[in-house]
Amino acid sequence: MGFFGKIKEGLSRTKQSMTNRLNSTIASFTGENEEFFEELEELLIMADVGAEASMDAVDRLRDVVHERGLRGGEEVRGALREILVDMLGESGELTLRTKPSVILVVGVNGVGKTTTIGKLAMSLGREGKKVLLAAGDTFRAAAAEQLGIWAQRSGADFVRHEEGSDPAAVVFDAISAAKARGADVIIVDTAGRLHNKSNLMNELSKISRVIDRELPGADRETLLVLDATTGQNGLMQAEEFKRSAGLTGIVLTKLDGTAKGGIVFAIASKLGVPVRYVGVGEKADDLIPFDPEEFVSELVE
Fold first, then answer.
1. Entry pTM
2. Crossing angle between the packed helical segments 12-27 and 292-300, to the nearest 10 degrees
């Protein structure tokens, strides 16, 4: 199943919550009508697009309707689609040109972070890249064990320390091993305690300093894994991690039938951080590159 099919399946619950009303609202459009715009804004908020992003989208649509003199529902649907795609911006591929490059994966416990790393390792391995996984979450033995299983499945190298070790020391050893073994990409798992704990953010800063020192000039991606079912709470997590870790992308997991998928618009609008991947299931190939145009098409058409 390709991107379109998986997104269609994953957005089923989101679509149930808004598409029928959205279609009815758009079909009723016969010209500029403030009641129409208010109802549309309400629908977008219900889909967890977020109040700020919803207001922005509707304000832009109102301007387009006026400027183009739109009168029909399908014209309005097309204009809304253009606006939502533009709000999401370009997803883009990961920048992994140096050898080794680093992918630092952050996020709170329970969002599917370790599983996402495993799936990403398998994807990069299929592209012919030699991957090394670093078990930087030393506070949960289960996290390192799970990551080790994914390393075996994906054929990646694996570096871990004892439970309770310094995460930055794990990253240091992983970088040394990657240099010695000719790895193309180091993927670093990190601790996932609550996002409002300053010690977690301090640990991320320490890891970043080790990477800067040991791999100056290396390409680095910092991906935040978010559980789509958390809705606006996920946005608060993203804001905190962006301040502390300098995010380059979002991985939105559990977009498989229970999520309010509109959270991607709130993230893109509020943070200016692209959604790079979405997780739409438990299988290894259920982590797929995010396609803004197809995502929007399935949401509003």
1. 0.85
2. 60
HEC assignment per residue over the chain: CCHHHHHHHHCHHHHHHHHHHHHHHHHCCCCCCHHHHHHHHHHHHHCCCCHHHHHHHHHHHHHHHHHHCCCCHHHHHHHHHHHHHHHHCCCCCCCCCCCCEEEEEECCCCCCHHHHHHHHHHHHHHCCCCEEEEECCCCCHHHHHHHHHHHHHHCCEEECCCCCCCHHHHHHHHHHHHHHHCCCEEEEECCCCCCCCHHHHHHHHHHHHHHHHHCCCCCEEEEEEEEHHHCHHHHHHHHHHHHHHCCCEEEEECCCCCCCCCHHHHHHHHHCCCEEEEECCCCCCCEEECCHHHHHHHHHC
From the CB of residue 115, how many other CB atoms can be counted at a distance below 10 Å? 19
pLDDT in tens, 209-254: 999 999 999 999 999 998 877 766 777 778 878 877 788 999 988 7
Q: In what order do the strands lie in the sheet with 131-135?
A: 157-159, 131-135, 185-189, 101-106, 220-227, 249-253, 275-279, 287-289
- For residue 207, what are the CA distances in angstroms to 172, 204, 210, 256? 8, 5, 5, 32
One-letter amino acid of 269: S
Q: How many residues does the chain have?
A: 301
For residue 158, which of 186, 123, 116 has the smallest C-alpha distance?
A: 186
| Tokens 């990961």 found at | 94
Dist. CA 108–CA 31, nearest whole Å = 46
